[in-house]
Design goal:
- This protein has about 230 residues and is α+β, with helices and mostly antiparallel strands.
- Helices cover about 45% and strands about 25% of the residues.
- The chain has 8 helices and 12 strands.
- Bound molecules: adenosine-3',5'-cyclic-monophosphate (CMP).
- Adenosine-3',5'-cyclic-monophosphate binds next to β5, α3 and α5.
Length: about 230
């Protein structure tokens, strides 16, 4: 669906807050607004399939998606999640090759979608967007290096603790004893997030629970960093 006047203004306002477009001139931003298409999907819908052709750039207006890789037996490894203001699809947009990962909506999500030739044309008019893009890509590469490092050097239980602590610091509640409370993940979710089998995660959780490092209470996980 292409956009009407009111949506155009909303998207323009929204894009001003998106790091990728933040330094874009008003003139150039106005020029491309007409070319955006809005797409809405439901929770669980696939947006992009790994290996598919496609070179559109997606900007999340509202909602959340996950980028993941699927193994030969359907096992999933979650690379990252994209929230409001994040973009994806830039890899195929840049090199014209097939999609590098699957993208699936974790909740009902809407996107502003831009065609490759319009994005590249815009970049030629105002290279500041290329500099923003590069710095975001470098941040993603650094994060990927951290993931490689943990897959190579840490065992399942250490990777699990790193993942849980990362989420505890980001979005957990901490009590006066220093114990974090976070949402309870299924063993499958944990396995997909740290690149391990469900069985290995269950085993590691049992050990951490015996040590008192990770316990369960009222449908939440409690992380005791000092145990
Ligand atoms: P593209 O390959 O076009 O489609 C899948 C998208 O997933 C890709 O562009 C990126 O936007 C995103 N993606 C793939 N791998 C990673 C990664 N390691 N970190 C963050 N995002 C990624």
């Amino acid at each position: 669906m292409f956009i009407g006047e009111k949506e155009k203004q909303l998207i323009e306002k929204f894009l001003r807050r998106v790091p990728l477009f933040s330094s874009f001139s008003d003139k150039h931003l106005k020029n491309i607004i007409d070319d955006f298409k809005i797409i809405s999907v439901k929770k669980g819908d696939d947006v992009v399939f790994q290996s598919d052709e496609g070179t559109d750039l997606f900007i999340v207006l509202k909602g959340k998606v996950k980028a993941s890789l699927l193994g030969p037996d359907g096992e999933e490894f979650i690379l990252t999640t994209f929230n409001e203001g994040d973009f994806f699809g830039e890899m195929s947009l840049i090199d014209g090759k097939s999609r590098s990962a699957n993208i699936m909506a974790e909740v009902a999500t809407s996107f502003a979608v831009l065609k490759r030739d319009r994005f590249l044309g815009t970049m030629r008019q105002d290279p500041s967007i290329a500099i923003n893009l590069l710095s975001i890509l470098v941040a993603r590469l650094r994060k990927s290096d951290e993931v490689i490092e943990s897959l190579v050097f840490l065992d399942v239980s250490e990777r699990l603790m790193r993942f849980l602590m990362h989420n505890a610091i980001k979005e957990g509640e901490r009590d006066k004893n220093g114990v974090y409370k976070i949402k309870k993940y299924t063993h499958k979710e944990l396995a997909s997030s740290i690149g391990a089998s469900r069985e290995a995660v269950s085993k590691a959780l049992k050990v951490l629970s015996t040590k008192g490092t990770v316990t369960e209470k009222d449908g939440h996980l409690l992380i005791h960093p000092d145990s």
